[in-house]
Design brief:
By secondary structure, the protein is of the alpha/beta class. It has a single domain, classed as Glutaredoxin (3-Layer(aba) Sandwich). About 25% of the residues lie in helices and about 25% in strands. It is built from five helices and nine strands, in the order ββαβαβαβαββββα. The protein has helices at about 40, 60-75, 90-100, 115-120, 160-165; strands at about 15, 35, 45-50, 80-85, 110, 125, 130, 135-140, 140-145. The protein has a five-stranded mixed sheet. InterPro entries: PRX5-like, Redoxin, Thioredoxin-like_sf, Thioredoxin_domain.
Length: about 170
């Protein structure tokens, strides 16, 4: 069942990621993947979560991710504390994608949804890959959730759409 505005963000949502560190900022540096308990970490925060079918893919790298990077100040001005991107790529790829885009710190997270487990649980995955969607979570409650229905579009999941719903 898909997420809808008014739903509680599911419990037990755990992603994998490699925390950003200054000493491992080089794109070739590998960190150690750890679990990120999103249900717990985001319970008392305002969060924008967006999902892409794959890191380093055309629409994701040319439009989707850059839109959120550019919009980070506007998102922060609307009270967003964390922006997170997920894909079914492994944590090493997600970490490298963040480094390739010069994103530093812990306010913008690059998370792995292994085997698209979370995305599958909300019905927004296909063939083991995450769909293209966006979710706004405000202190554990979903206030916006939408998936793209047309390939390569950002009408529901892009930064502009998310900003319009904050």
């Amino acid at each position: 069942m898909s997420l809808q505005a008014g739903d509680a963000f599911p419990s037990g949502v755990v992603f994998k990621y490699i925390p950003w560190t200054e000493e491992a900022n080089d794109i070739t540096a590998c960190g150690i993947p750890i679990n990120f308990d999103a249900s717990k970490e985001w319970a008392d925060k305002k969060v924008v979560l967006f999902s892409v079918p794959g890191a380093f893919t055309p629409t994701c790298s040319i439009s989707h991710l850059p839109g959120f990077i550019t919009s980070l100040p506007a998102l922060k001005a609307k009270g967003v504390q964390t922006v997170a991107v997920i894909a079914s790529n492994d944590p090493y790829v997600m970490s490298a994608w963040g480094k390739a885009n010069k994103v530093t710190g812990e306010e913008f997270l690059f998370l792995s949804d292994p085997d698209a487990k979370f995305s599958e649980s909300i019905g927004w995955a296909s063939g083991g890959r995450t769909g293209r969607y966006a979710v706004i979570i405000d202190h554990g409650k979903v206030t916006y959730a939408a998936i793209e229905t047309q390939k390569g579009t950002l009408e529901a999941s892009g930064a502009e759409a998310v900003l319009a719903h904050l």
